[in-house]
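TICKET: design request
STATUS: open
ATTACHED STRUCTURE:
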């Protein structure tokens, strides 16, 4: 009797879509590129705002904040797509550090070599954190199926 009641509670109509963690509604889940975008953008903004701690950057703060934010957004999306292909935490972290470092080198070319380590290290750290978060918490995005 008890098992019949339990089965009535979880009975699913035939033809109804299968519930997954993404569609249940009780847990928030983001695809890896979107999670990378959110985490990368947030960390990029914080990286740019940390420029206020250096008084010599006061005249160029708008450029510092903008470039750090864009670097974080681009790195987040790219790392999200890469971590979707790589299912390994170690490879995700390495890819994050490499992508963050590569985008930081672009900013270094724009800003000048005087701040090489001040730009490169936070960029690589951003990449590692985004790589970790997308591998650990992101859900893989499935390609849409084409009806034939």
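STATUS: resolved
RESOLUTION: sequence designed for all positions
ATTACHED SEQUENCE:
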């Amino acid at each position: 009797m008890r098992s019949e009641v339990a089965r009535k509670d979880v009975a699913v109509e035939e033809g109804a879509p299968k519930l997954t963690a993404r569609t249940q509604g009780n847990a928030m889940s983001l695809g890896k590129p979107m999670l990378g975008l959110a985490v990368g953008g947030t960390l990029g903004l914080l990286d740019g705002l940390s420029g206020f701690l250096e008084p010599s950057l006061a005249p160029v703060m708008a450029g510092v904040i903008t470039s750090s934010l864009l670097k974080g957004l681009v790195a987040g999306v790219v790392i999200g797509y890469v971590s979707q292909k790589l299912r390994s935490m170690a490879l995700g972290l390495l890819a994050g550090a490499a992508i963050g470092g590569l985008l930081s080198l672009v900013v270094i070319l724009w800003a000048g070599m005087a701040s090489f380590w001040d730009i490169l290290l936070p960029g690589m750290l951003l990449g590692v954190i985004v790589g970790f978060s997308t591998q650990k918490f992101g859900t893989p995005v499935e390609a849409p199926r084409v009806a034939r």
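CLOSING REMARK: The chain has five helices and no strands. Residues 5-9 have pLDDT under 50 and may be disordered.
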